[in-house]
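Give me the fold.
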Amino acid sequence: MPRHELADPGTPFAERILIGWRYPLRGAAIWTIGAITLFESIAFLPVTGLKLLVLALGWVALYTYSFECLRHTADGYADPPEAAVNGGDGTSVALIVIQLTGNAIAVLAPILFGFPGLAVSLLFALVLPVITMSLAFDGVGAALNPLTWFEAIRRLGRSYAMLFAMVLASSLLQAAAQYALKDHGPTFFGTLGYYLVANYLTVYNFHLMGALIHHKHETLGYQPASIDIAAAVEPDDDQALLAHVDLIARDDVPGATDILTERLREGLAPATMHTRYRELLRAQDRLPELLVHGQIWIAALVTARETRRALGVVQDCIGVDPAFLPDDPITCGPLADTAAHGGMTRLALHLAEGYTRTWPRDMGAPHYGLLAARMHERLGQHDEARSVAKRLLAERPDHPLRIDIEAFLTAIDAARPVTR
């Protein structure tokens, strides 16, 4: 498997701008630019309708490859891609449409509307890079959403202003090349030189967009592919520790458990490590420790908003002790809500009833009492549901939930079968 040079996301974007001019001259990029330029030279053949067709195909090929450069750079790779391997997907088609629209607005708006049209053209020029970037890391839907554009620009801050300045400078350079080479230079070689400059600048600009995504990937919530690949090829310390624990556990399960105990005491650990620790405890029938670990891990998962995984741990602990309940209302409450919304009715009922039984004076107790009544009703236990709701009314007659509880009781009574 060939090794790819990776870029450092910590490199300042200003430095990426300075070193980025070499990018279109490296690897497959320079050959692609040259091949597209030579293909565009076919437009000089005296064949009716050939020029427009050749230039359109060359333009599509250039933007398809440039977009692949954007993605490749955003994923953390320092060298240009060998080919546009994703060229057939829907985002590439959307890119072509967006770029056509952008170029049409840039040319036609000032002509049709004068100075206001020039303002429209500049505004679209401002958002066109972020539209293209959104297309790469969020897809077509986000790329067409103006709210996404301005939120991304806000997150990117000064770096986006630098990118926009470089895109404008490239446009001016391209215009100068058109004037000097295509319009006033030798017909064939001047036009060929203009195509070469324009193609180079296009690849450079798309590379800068990808470099900005890579540099700001944490801010944008984007995970570069190179990070995942590097993690798979080069296991981190925790993976190596787990492999060592598995080796020790063949002959010394308590010793392997002690190793993981020390690691978990250090702080945040991956789920695989917690799972393996629980397996080792269960193998030794150390059930009290299994429940203690469950309480700690459940609280950490709820804090991290991984309530689905936390519910799995709760179920595992209930399997050890049917009376198990998270030991804090700020942990137990969200889990009861998640279980109810996720269709885990019996688990939601267990958590909600445990909440009201363990913390009856807590401000959240009426809410979870009503949740327990609703879970009884969902299970077809109408008498239990009615009993819980009536008890809530008796205990908290002035609580704001009184209206909801009374409505719940009315609904149960209305659904009761009529006996004759």
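The radius of gyration is 31 Å.
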